[in-house]
Amino acid sequence: MKASASERRAEITLRLSEFEFPPMQDVLLVGKRAPIGPEAARRMVDALSPEQYEVLPLDHAVLEAAVIRKNLLRMVPAEKLLPFLLEEGGKIAHESAIVKAQVTVTVEATRTVEL
Fold first, then answer.
1. How many other C-beta atoms are found inside a 10 Å radius of the C-beta of residue 30?
2. How many other C-beta atoms can be found within 10 angstroms of the C-beta atom of residue 81?
């Protein structure tokens, strides 16, 4: 029977998530016939949280725009986030709806280091 060599290792797990600031949600999906359109949504979010949101026009059957917190877009680019939002939000949204969404992004990184 062979004796095994002694090793010491540590596994480090790191979870990062975005700090949330009320009262706005992370995302508003604006329907094509919603009571407020994209420009009114822009004025509303600029009044409540200046420079915190971006209004993105959409090419979608029932949704006209997405109002998304800029910090969220810094963590997940729009081209990665929008397909997920439209797939799930599009299931419950209709042309006259404004759907709000809370999005939590958690980044995990794990490394093993030699000790």
1. 25
2. 20
Strand ranges for the chain from DSSP E: 9-17, 27-31, 53-57, 63-69, 98-101, 106-114
Pick the closest to residue 70 from 84, 86, 89, 49 (CA basis): 49
Q: What single-letter DSSP state applies at residue 32?
A: T
pTM for the model stands at 0.77
Q: Yes or no: say if 24 and 53 are a contact pair by the CB < 8 Å rule.
A: yes
Neighbour order of strands in the sheet with 98-101: 53-57, 63-69, 27-31, 98-101
Rounded Cα gap, residues 42 and 78, in angstroms: 17
Tens digit of each residue's pLDDT (9 = 90 or more) over 11-37 = 877 776 555 554 568 999 999 999 999
Closest by CA position to 84, among listed 46, 27, 40, 37: 27
